[in-house]
Every structure is written in C-alpha cells, then in structure tokens.
Amino acid sequence: MAIELKMPALSPTMEEGTLARWLKNEGDAIRSGDIIAEIETDKATMEFEAVDEGTLGKIMVPAGTAGVKVGSVIAVLQGDGEAAAPTPAQTPAAAPAPAAPAATGSVAPAAAPVAAKDPEIPVGTNMKSVTVREALRDAMAEEMRRDSRVFVMGEEVAQYQGAYKVTQGLLDEFGPKRVIDTPITEYGFAGIGTGAAMGGLRPIVEFMTFNFAMQAIDHIINSAAKTNYMSGGQMRCPIVFRGPNGAAARVGAQHSQNYGPWYASVPGLVVIAPYDSSDAKGLLKAAIRSEDPVVFLENELVYGRSFELPELDDHVLPIGKARVMREGRDVTIVSYSIGVGFALEAAEQLAAEGIEAEVLDLRTLRPLDKQAVLDSLAKTNRVVVAEEGFPVCSIASEIIAICMEEGFDHLDAPVLRVCNEDVPLPYAANLERAALINAEGIVKAVKQVCYR
Amino acid sequence: MAKPASKNSPAAKAVAGAEGDEVPALRALQQAFDANKKYAASDAELLTFYEQMLLIRRFEERAGQLYGLGLIGGFCHLYIGQEAVAVGLQSALKEGHDSVITGYRDHGHMLAYGIDPKVIMAELTGREAGISRGKGGSMHMFSTEHKFYGGHGIVGAQVPLGAGLAFAHKYREDGGVCMAYFGDGAANQGQVYETFNMAALWQLPIVFVVENNGYAMGTAVQRGSAETHFYRRGTAFRIPGLDVNGMDVLEVRAAAEVALDYVRNGNGPVLMELHTYRYRGHSMSDPAKYRTREEVQEMRDKHDPIEAAKAELIARGTSEDKLKEIDKRIRQQVAEAADFAENSPEPDLSELHTDVLVERY
Question: Which ranges carry the Lipoyl-binding domain (chain A) (predicted)?
Fold first, then answer.
C-alpha cells in the first residue's frame, strides 16, 4: 500500500517552502521517527520526520526545489506489506502536520498595484525588493551599528534567531551582550527594558506577539508612557516595544488580536503600525532614535511579503505622517498595517468598475495624522475605514469621529468602517474567514458610500 | 514522608544540576553580617545619620499637617518610623552614581539622597516649583541628577524597573548598583519573582530591599504571606538573603556594607529584608483598625530609630544643647520648605499639554 508523503505545513502561516535536502534515498527503508528530509521556509529550517514505515519509493520533488506548496506530494512511501512489523499508525496521507487546507482565505494576496510614490523618498532612488522581515532586521542592525546603547531583548531573539526570524543574524553580529534571550516572562522583561531605558539605554523589546504583551501592558502604559509627564519632563523612556500584532492564521482567539486601538488611546506613547518594507524599515529606525516610548506593531502575515525598498544609506521616515498609497478622486479608504493590502486590492477591483479610490495608510496611529485624513476627505468627500481588528472603540471609530468633528462639511455620505466581526476570532477556517476583514467587504462599503 | 535522596544519588544531582546544590553565599552574607552587626560609624557619620533621619521625621510630620489643611491632595504615604532604612542603606551608596528606585512611599528616600526638601514639599502641594513641576505628586517624584528614579505608584513595578537600571549599570560597565525598595505587600507580586529570576540569571548589580513594616496597607504580613521571612524568598533563585533590624541605623548600614560588597564584586543580586514599622497609617486616610494603639506605642517607645541614634550620640558625648540646636535647625528647614511649597504658584495652565511626548512629530 503506497502512502503519499506531502509537503508539511511547519507553521500556521506557511503556504510553501523549499525542500532543502533529502536525507533518505529512493529504496531506503524508513522507520517511524526517521528524518527523511529538511524543509526550509523563510522563517526556519525544519526536519521532516516519518510517521509511517516502509520503503522510500519515488522522490517526486528533488532536493533544492523552492516554492513547494504545502500539501503537494513530495515522495511516495511503499508499504512493506505483511513482512513489516505491524504499525498501528499506518493511515494513508498522514503527514506530520495536517496538510494545510487550500482555504487560507484570510491571507490576502500581496496586492501590488501601481503604488503612489512616497514623497519622502528622493526621486530616482534605486529600489530593491525586500521582505518586511528583512527590512525590520536591517533597521535594527543599522541602528545597533550606529548607537552602542541600542540592544534587543525578548524571547528567542538570539540563539533561535527570532521566533519569526526577525532578529536573524543579530546575535552573530552583535553578540550576547546586545542580543538577549529572555525567559518567558513578559511582565518582568518589559519592566527591565523600561528601567534600562530610564537608565539611559535604548532597548528594543520584542514580544513574540503582542498578545503576550498583555502580561506586560502595565509597564508599557504605567511605567513607560507616563513617566515623562509625571516627572515634569525630567525622566525619559526611549524604548521600542515591537512584535507581530493582529490576527495570524488559524491560531485562535488568544493569539489573534489587534492592539492598535488599545495603545493608541494612551497619551505618552507613540504607536506605529507599518504595512510595507519601506515603512517598516524607515519607521523602525525612527522609532529606535525617538526619545519617546514607541509601540511598534508588525504583522506576521506581512513579514514574508516583498516590497520595494529604497536603497539609501540611512532610510529614516518621519513618525506621525500618513502616506497616500494610491491616488484617487472618488472615495478615500483609510487603513493601516495589513488592512492596507486589502484596501489596495479593493481599490483595484473598484477601478475596474470605474470608482477611483484613494488609499491612505496611517502608518502612525499615535500621534495620528489627522490632517492627511481631512485633506483626503476634502478631496473625495467620502471615507471608508478598513481595519483588521475589532470594530468597537477602534481606530476606525476614531477616524469617523475626526471626520465628523472636523470634516463634517466635506462629507457627502456617512463614514463607514469595515472591520473584523465583533467576536473573539474563531478557529474553524470558514468561521475565521467570515470573521476577518477582506477586500470584498471594503468594495461593498465603498459602493455604499458612493451610492452605487 | 519520602526519605530524602542521598546527596550523591542521581536524583539529588539532577535537582542540583551540574554545579551541585551548595550555594554557600546564600547563608554567608547573613553570617558575615551577624558577626558584626553594628557599623562602626564615626561621630560625624552618626551625627549625619541622625540629622537625616530627623529631617525625614520632621518633614513627614509637616506633610501630614499640610495634608490636614488641604494643601496636599490625593494619596500621601508617610515614612515616619522607617527612617533608619533609607538613611542606613543609602549612606552606603555613591550618590549620583548608584541608582535608587522605590514605590509610592518615597519622600524619605529622596531626602536620604540629598534632594532639596523644598522641591519635594512643593511637589506635594502640586506647585510649579515641585520636583516634577507639579505633575507627579507624592507618589511620582524623580531626580535623574541624583539617580533617584521614583516614585512608582503601581505596587511592585519598581522591582523590574530597578533591575533595568541595574542592567544599564552592567551594560555600561560603570560599576554602579541599583537599590530597589519595595514593601512586604509588593513582595507578593508576581513580577518581583520574574525579576529575581532574571537578575540572578544575568548577575545584575542590584540590591532588593524589602521594607517589611508589618502591614500591606491593612493586611498583616501573616495574613497575606505564606512565607513571612522575606529574606528567604530569593533562595529559589540562588539570591542570598539578609535579615536585618530596620529600626537601628547602624545595623542597617552594616548590612548594607555586606550586601554592596557582594553585589559590587559582580556576584549578582542580594535580597535584604528590613524589619521596620510605620507609625502612621498606610496613607492619610487610614482608619487603623487593623492594629492596636498599644502596638504602635510600644514601637515608638522602645524601638524608635531616631531616639536610639540620639542615645548613642549622647553616650558618645554629644551635648543636649547641640542636639537641640540641630532639632531647631531642621524644624526651620522644614518650615521654610513648607512656606515655599505653600507660596509657590501652581503650574501655568499651558503646562497641561507639555511633557506628554519629548519630541514633536
């Protein structure tokens, strides 16, 4: 009985990987627990372990093949028939991890339409395609080279090279004094980082995800954000708290929340949530240099996407400035972080139907670039806010309030928000898909405000 | 009960790890302290301790009065009774080099670090001239110049922050240490133990100081703590402890010497427990139903740190006149601070929106 060995999913968000090498040859006897192959993703290299026993038959995907889709057949295992010792685990198609369903519909395709140029980047700058993950790493590395006070601490940031590989290579370059693995103790190390900033250093505290920063939120808010004010401007706290934020894929309610609105409600914090590689790098460098405490919200689903990054020696972008990602005259879609991808995708679809949407990426959630929102509103007279997060008391709520308080005369329609459903994020693929924001929802809302 | 495994058994080795289970320093510091409990202060040093403790006492009495007059608002936690702790410990630090951090009962620690009583009192009254320009209040005062880092209102938060300050000393290799104070109540916060773990793991130069005044607000230690010997609570992290009478400034100073010697030599943290007592309530609005008047009176009469220092000074030949003169001078200093605090203007309304962020974006 032949068993198909399928490309395993090694993480919740993995869609494809590289078959780095085969450790067994065709014809080799395979026992349960044998390492058959090594699989590489942009995050990690993992061993592919046999569950079933038999003889390795045909290898369908040769070593070194990149872009192998999760769930595709990579080899065939020939059963040993009656001669083999009875193994209870002989079920067909039992890959180590269940083959990820093709339905990872929550993952937006990297929409890359003709983007508006960032006015901050000099005309004629050479551009290079870089993943957000690399852009973030390079931002930290450059700032660590520039300022010996900068160090990074967090869970698995050093030897493991980062739970999401964002700190890859930093330990090798900067050593264990400046790239520090912490125990799993968010409250404690957030406090230690904050104290180190008060003591004159420039810490970058990585949270494996911002869900875990809930354990540490007291130090982010009560210790880091308020001290400058409480001390009458005497005691600064130049620290960056960073890590992935928002929903990943199929990780359930406790690992899937956007904390942007939480932090953005607190005076004393700077809150940044970039979308593409250029903003990730330019704004993280600015955050590290800032004298203020910064919450820097990344997104796991965007880490692996590639975007154009200007090749500049020192690419630093201004905090507190939104960016027009796509120009349009009919309606404004305000968004940030992963929502920008959906907004751009929606704008493409709308363009095909004759609606020219302007996409505004807030980039910084606090201080919020109100003027950019109002300027775009004055131009298009219609606004939809797209936010991957809960709808209640959201950034969307805030944008709507701003439009009403300060842009009322320019409004030709009520401002609508397109957010996740107001429920804890469910696990089941179909429910999760139904709960999360998508381009279709944005398209629908835009048509509504355009009365189309 | 299971028979304890023999020391050489595989189980014992597994528990102890490769380096064995003996950590002599866990007890060695206490032994060193027990061998010589009284710091041999010179007459001049003793006089300084006395003056500093008296300044704290008079300052706090005055603050209590100003609170009663409505000049100080909100929460105000007085340090009366605990003076020997801050004075004895901080006299062993290098002011402006070593860092100090504490909780909300912070007036005494500031005065013990030489910070001007005027700007402290003006902060209590919420005035522009206050050390936090009137924006912090009693619980939120800082002096980066003196390396006094607050003044923190969230119980226990100062412990990891203190470890961060210690981390910065170690990172910069400047030889400084951090002294982080917290109470017997804060000692039950989880983040304290997260910090113990990392401070010991990374050998941070920090002295953890539990000021055990017997009551976490209104909860007596034995009602809130399974292990009431706080100095033992570092043992699980291999942090040596010191059990110290916090009502005797010379004992406190002697223990500080032992602790700082250990920490400055790169051995990592020490946990000190200082047995002390606050004569006043937890804050100004404390009905004090949780203890008897007799208990408080007993401490005042028989264990007062200032009276003890005074007796020692007299025994060494200091004249009553000189002590009276000191008392008069300190009363005068505190009266001036109170006048200053009362007569300074409130912050300008334009200050409402300043200092939220350092930079403009």
Answer: 2-78
A410 plus A383 within the same structural domain: yes
Residue B251: exposure state from Cβ atoms within 10 A (0-12, 13-18, ≥19): buried
- Per the DSSP assignment, residues forming a β-bridge with A21 are A38
Close Cβ partners of B321 (under 8 Å, ≥ 6 residues apart): none
Tell me how close the Cα of B91 comes to any Cα of chain A, in angstroms: 21
A76-90, A134-148, B277-291: the lowest-pLDDT one: A76-90
Distance separating alpha carbons of residues B75 and B281, to the nearest angstrom: 12
Do A277 and A155 fall into the same domain? yes
Rounded to the nearest angstrom, the minimum Cα separation between B77 and chain A is 17
Q: Can you read off the two tokens belonging to residue A376?
A: 């775009």
Range from A100-109, A284-293, B179-188 carrying the lowest mean pLDDT:
A100-109
Number of domains observed in the structure of chain A: 3
* Structural domain that includes position A69: 2-82
Are A165 and A39 found together in one domain?
no
Active site residues of A: 186, 255
pLDDT at site A2: 85
Which one of A185, A186, A223, A231 would you mutate to disrupt binding with B, by most B Cβ within 10 Å of its Cβ? A231
Closest alpha carbon to B52 in B125, B119, B111: B111
| ipTM, 2 dp | 0.92
Last residue of a domain, one of A280, A310, A340: A310
Please compute the mean of the pLDDT values over residues A299-327 and round it to a whole number.
Answer: 97
Report the sign of the C-alpha dihedral through residues B91, B95, B98, B100, in that order. Answer: positive
- From residue A163, alpha-carbon distances to A138, A166, A243, A247, B175 in Å are 17, 8, 10, 16, 34
Closest by CA position to A17, among listed A6, A26, A9? A9
Higher pLDDT, A449 or A71: A449
- pLDDT greater than 50 at residue A317: yes
pLDDT(A42) > 80:
no
Report pTM: 0.89
- Whether residues A306 and A328 fall in one domain: no
Same domain, A224 and A335: no
CATH 3.40.50.720, applies to B23-48+76-103+152-334: no
**In this structure, are A146 and A74 located in the same domain?**
no
pLDDT at B354: 97
The pLDDT score that the predictor gives to residue B4 is: 42
Do the chains contact at B134 and A219, CB–CB below 8 Å? Answer: no
Which chain B residues touch A364 with a CB distance below 8 Å? 361
Average pLDDT of the segment spanning B140-148: 96
Domain boundaries, chain B: 23-48+76-103+152-334
Is there a single domain that holds both residue A442 and residue A365?
Answer: yes
Answer yes or no: is pLDDT of B162 > 60: yes
Q: Which of A152-156, B10-14, B82-86 has the lowest mean pLDDT?
A: B10-14
Q: Rg for chain B (alpha carbons), in Å?
A: 21
CATH code, domain carrying A44: 2.40.50.100
**A195 vs B133, B163, B201: nearest CB:** B163
Taking each helix axis as running N to C, give the angle between helix B43-68 and helix B117-124, from 0 to 180 degrees, rounded to the nearest 10.
20
> How far is it, in rounded angstroms, from Cα B21 to Cα A153?
30
- Residue A388 sits in the same domain as residue A440: yes
